[in-house]
Specification:
The protein is of the alpha/beta class and about 500 residues long. It folds into three domains: about 120 residues, 5'-nuclease (Rossmann fold, 3-Layer(aba) Sandwich), CATH 3.40.50; about 230 residues, Aspartate Aminotransferase, domain 2; about 120 residues, Aspartate Aminotransferase, domain 1 (Alpha-Beta Complex), CATH 3.90.1150. It contains 18 helices and 16 strands. The chain has a seven-stranded mixed sheet with strand order 6-14-13-10-9-7-8, with helices on both faces. It has a five-stranded parallel sheet with strand order 3-2-1-4-5. It starts with a strand and ends with a helix. The structure holds pyridoxal-5'-phosphate.
Length: about 500
Amino acid sequence: MRILLDADCLIQALKNRADSAVLNLCRQKRCQGWVASTSIPVILESAEVSEEDVQSLLRDLAVLTPTAHDIDLALGSDKPFAQALAAHLVKASGLDAVVTLSPEKFSGITALTPDQLQEKLDAPPSPVEEVRLLDITASYHQILNAVEKEMAETIRSGYFILGPKVSRLEERMADYCQTKYAVGVSSGTDALLIALMALGVGPGDEVITSPYTFFATAGSIIRAGAKPVFVDVNDITFNIKPEHIERCITPNTKAIIPVHLYGQCADMDPILQLARDKGLAVIEDAAQAIGSEYKGRPAGSLGDMGCFSFFPAKNLGGFGDGGLVTTNSEEIYKQLKIIRVHGSEPKYYHKVMGGNFRLDALQADAVSAKLNFLEEWTEKRRKNAQIYHQLFKDSALTPFVQLPPEVFSRHVYNQYVIRAGNRRDELRTFLNEKRIGCEIYYPVPLHLQDCFKSLGYKSGDFPESEKAARETLALPISHEVDHAQQEYVVQMIHRFFLGE
Ligand SMILES: *Cc1c(COP(=O)(O)O)cnc(C)c1O
């Protein structure tokens, strides 16, 4: 439950300190407690409360700062200001209730006394009614104040593009991925494009990749002026089959882009060996795989470059678009930095073609604040995956659905993708009716996309990719999903295949 704590109830709680029921519930994370910043002076004015008391209070709560517009609305209401503002904040921020000593003063929102809150949380949980594929706002309680701090600094400094915030994120990301360098860019798509440009890939060149991936992987090869050459995927991991790559290498081949699909690394050793033997570059499409590892080495540190995305639905997402390229090569690093700013070096002198591939400081701020939680959230995803595995096994569903195995530890489960045979579309409709978010990644393999017709591929060329596109379904797996929700998902899949 997400609650806004009214000033009166916080003052009372501070007086009782150790045995404040409300604060204990927040401390134990049984609910997410928010306090409006406008309540702080009210609390401080209460004679028995010291500033240290309020400081320690804020360690367990998150601060909700009203905008000037929120305040204006509350001032214009016919209710007293404090109640009007609290009611408005609860509604606008999607909180569940205000907790107050005087619930009668509130209208239009759920208002609970501390005792009522306790009762509600102690009651048997209400049955799950909905599981979203992704609920980004669910973790705001953990991160919003840190994001706001970073963003306020940026806004006050006026340094909006690249600059110290982006450099700091680059250092932290290089450290996280165990590479020498990282270059923040405008999106994951642009990360792939700039990586190809840094290698000088262009017209006449061929780049080998998977046809079963997000469009950007192959789209960026075309945008670089080169030709994508597809190699089918493995039926278990959905990643490129290394043993099929060699026969596709021609004198024009310049690079291989293995995709670490759904958060699990492609089988990199044979790919890297082949690339070394044939003098090819390797660019990892690690957009879905931040934090994943292959034989103890992090994604992004395996090839010549690693490309990451900060799209909000990725495991480390910003509040908008952003991306990053990692590398251990000083030479590539220098190229990336120049191409990122229109090939300009020094400023206004252009020796090479580049583009605007710059990362915003505000995006770097959101990503930096979230990076502190990435390991915790990744471990929660991995735990959720284990729970699904167990639930599917216990429900005798494994003859009907193929589960995603962890072939190369560590899988970071950007998606938890099952195979549901020829009943996939029916299952999806059924789950959507039960208000369970699920999605098909991806319904059409890239070699069959209209815009790639001129490449000359046809249906049947990549049977595993085509089969995966027909049979797979992604289930809710993010760190915000709880055990009861997972049970509900598996229960409904059981109902679909086996009846009640
Ligand atoms: C998301 C994604 C991209 C593109 O990233 P954006 O930040 O959305 O441009 C590229 N490749 C894969 C595999 C992705 O999942």
